[in-house]
Design goal:
Layout (H helix, E strand, L loop, with lengths): L1 E3 L20 E3 L18 E3 L3 H7 L2 E2 L5 H6 L2 H4 L11 H12 L9 E4 L8 E3 L7 E5 L2 E4 L7 E3 L6 E4 L3 H8 L17
Parallel strand pairs: 2-4
Antiparallel strand pairs: 1-2, 1-3, 5-10, 6-7, 6-10, 7-8, 8-9
């Protein structure tokens, strides 16, 4: 999948910043026959993700244009207790909330801690406080992430407290029923 955080590179293709705008999207690699030059001058910087679950953990949300169905299914309002009687929250209000949740002091990655057995499938966490190793929770297992796919299955330790990488409001959307797309290597079947 492809993500967008604005223009991050200079005219020589060197990344100069981690983000430019609060609107962090995850979209399709191909849409409507469009073609792009990667890292073109004065254009947004293309970010590539293994799958949607990875992009959501990074703080992105489904694109309103190329992933309309996913955007509508993203149960953000329901998961976050927002009354939609007068209409759904705007994309800008979702982006503002996600921006608060994904950036910590000094522009670091903001995380929170929670017991692993209270988390829904599709959430990313890190078990080791000293060494950052991301794992996807899926089907009662922890799946070790790598750039090319999920490479190992770890047992799920019920009651263990983990550092959650996926923003809180996105975790809430998953609890309310949103199922992110996962790379085929994360679909099992996994041993019991």
């Amino acid at each position: 999948m492809m993500g967008n955080r604005g223009r991050l590179h200079d005219n020589y293709g060197v990344i100069r910043r981690l983000w430019q705008a609060k609107r962090w999207l995850v979209g399709l690699l191909e849409f409507d026959g469009r073609h792009r030059q990667v890292m073109a001058p004065d254009r947004c910087t293309e970010l590539f993700f293994l799958d949607e679950a990875t992009a959501l953990a990074a703080g992105h949300r489904p694109c309103f244009e190329c992933r309309w169905g996913a955007y509508n299914a993203y149960a953000w309002a329901a998961g976050n207790g927002i009354d939609v009687t007068d209409g759904r929250p705007t994309a800008a209000s979702i982006d503002d909330r996600l921006h608060e949740e994904r950036l910590g002091p000094g522009r670091s990655k903001r995380t929170f801690v929670e017991k692993i057995d209270g988390l829904p499938d599709g959430v990313f966490e890190s078990l080791d406080k000293d060494e950052f190793r991301p794992y996807l929770l899926g089907g009662g297992h922890l799946l070790a992430w790598s750039p090319g796919g999920y490479t190992a299955v770890c047992p799920l330790a019920v009651g263990e407290v983990v550092s959650v990488l996926t923003p809180k409001s996105t975790v809430a959307a998953m609890r309310a029923g949103y199922k992110p797309e996962v790379h085929p290597s994360g679909n099992g079947p996994w041993p019991s």
